[in-house]
Amino acid sequence: MPAALPSAKLLELQAGWLAPARAQLLRHVHIARRHRVLDLGTGVGSVLPELSRRAGGMVIGLDRSLQALQAGRAEGAHRVAADGVSLPFRNGTLDLIFSQLALLWISPLRTVIAEVWRALEPGGVLVALEPDYGGLIEYPGSITTQDLWLQGLERAGADPWVGRRLPGMLEEQGFDVRVSLFDTLSIADPARFCFLRELPLTEEEEQQLSQAERAAQQFTGAWSQVAHLPFFLIRATKPGA
Predict the structure, then answer these.
(1) Which of 35, 46, 131, 205 would you label with 152, given CA atoms 20 to 30 Å apart?
(2) pTM, entire model
């Protein structure tokens, strides 16, 4: 698996965390009426079964990692090995493109957005769930890992600020953009440290991470610590339907 891609187990856990927000977004765009759906950056296909079950037609999982595609689940969906900067679809082919924690990794982002615009038919929609590590909320200070996330993600080739940047780029392309955020705060999950450990960290950063993890283990109350990563929940519609 690519170094930037978490393990399949962690990806499944991550998909579960985002399930309520994802379900709401897909209802808003009437996924049951969508007949040509692309899961952009599908990875091991954590969301493919859900999309296949809910969509009204063909679902395709696309990822640049052939190894991830082969290791993952299809369950009724097609799989394509390709890069988001050059989608292998004719103009106006798709009516829904879904992306979860994928645009974070694909560069240059403006090129990907232009490809999404080209591949969508008029009235087609991009649904994206993307984080913004620059807005990470952590309390108390002894569990803080934000700098480690920012440095590790940038070192791995990701854009940790993608959430706040994406809406403006989509609007510049011509999309009608709607953005929401999580409306609930969840109890801090210790698994967040596992994701961070899979990033390329220096030896000093590894030590800082271990200190933060040990500090977090000392808090016994459910709300004695807070770790909240903001997600931008985006619906971007191509006008003209």
Answers:
(1) 46
(2) 0.94
